[in-house]
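Q: For a teaching session next week I want to show students how multiple molecules come together into a single three-dimensional assembly. I've collected the sequence lines for a complex. Could you give me the predicted structure tokens for the whole thing so I can convert them for display?
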Amino acid sequence: MSYLVATSLEEALTYLRDSGGRARVVAGATDLYLKDLPHSLVDLSALPGASVIEEADGLITLGACLTHASAASSILILSRATALAEGCMAIGSPQIRNIATLGGNVVNAAPAADAAVALVALGASAVLVDTGGRSREEAVEDLYVIFNRSAVDSTSEILLKLTIKSCGTGEGSAFTRFAPRRALSLPLVNAAARVRIENGCFREVRLVVAPVKPAPTRLLQTEAMLEGMAPCEETWRLVERAASEEVEVRSSLLRCSARYRNHLVGVLAARVLQAASERAREEEGVDGR
Amino acid sequence: MKKQVIIFQLNGEPAEIHIDPAKSLLKVIREEFGLYGTKAGCGKGECGACTVLLEGQAVNSCLIPAGKINGCSVETIENLSRGEDIHPLQKAFAEKGAVQCGFCTPGMIMSAYAFLKSNPRPQPPEVRTAISGNLCRCTGYKQIEAAILAAAPEMDKENKG
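A: Of course. Below is the structure for the complete assembly, covering every listed component.
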């Protein structure tokens, strides 16, 4: 096999083009390396801007090769996209987080990848460019075809960056998961939410749980139900029931029984909304002082 | 398999090999350089026995393709002691009974080493997170945590001195 550490985007795209589908893109390589390796790999982690974290006009831009460790310790992400910092911190182990990347977490297309679940809740977009020079921007949740298969063809397309609207006044986000152990453990269920609280009521809720479908899944009915409701005990009880009823899950030897997972979906949905709304209120308090 | 020339820094010294870039960093370290301190455990990034530092950060060397280390610095357990003069972490592991069979020890120490370099005054929960990617089936982690906490001020002193 051959391994190219690309130093420019043009070099990476040319290499992919010349390889006629036999080369594919890699970043941290922690998932790909355990599978059958292709004929050639193009490593993107040294590209200029590959690990950037920046904010301009309320939009956070993250390089696709940003590691989970860097994302989890970024003050900007911790304060303006908290769910992502929490999702990144839940992945694997310190060793994995030091090398695995956000872009890889999305393109590897595991249905309950913790960072991807947080990104979908935050409403993140992916910016892609292909070997034909075409560029496109897609919502992260639209990048999944079937279980474990991404809509990004890594032999001809590169995920360059992710963008997120940063959480401002009255907004908050959170991520949570339930797993047998705290490290190196797949989640039985994970959940993330982004909320805005206006005059004490929910507005623009994004609630995501996984694994339910191939992509991290928004619970649209529960989101709609929450519009205008107040964050309080009664609401959490309603959310538990609504979220559980909204999903249809299978029993899995890898994770747990359908009934248990269904229960967890409700519990985690309520917890993550509570955490996100508390942050939104703190944010409102701080900025309104 | 097509071989490539990989140039990197190993334990502070320049290193060059002609190798299949798909080979793991773990194999490079053990088979090409004969540094057997780094252990081969699960081979899939779950046990942490193969932990080394890549650009100063703890990584599972079993998951790193050799092609990725071109131009990078790699540090293994062999770089910690200076002859008979062992590193504060190694000393603390021995003194606190943090070693039984010893198989996890090099990886455990490398995780702790990377952690203490950026966290000279750690709290116990931080230590637990720092070694959460390293499995030990003998000592039960308590002694390991105690050893890392005991080594922290010594390592800090050494770094400042």
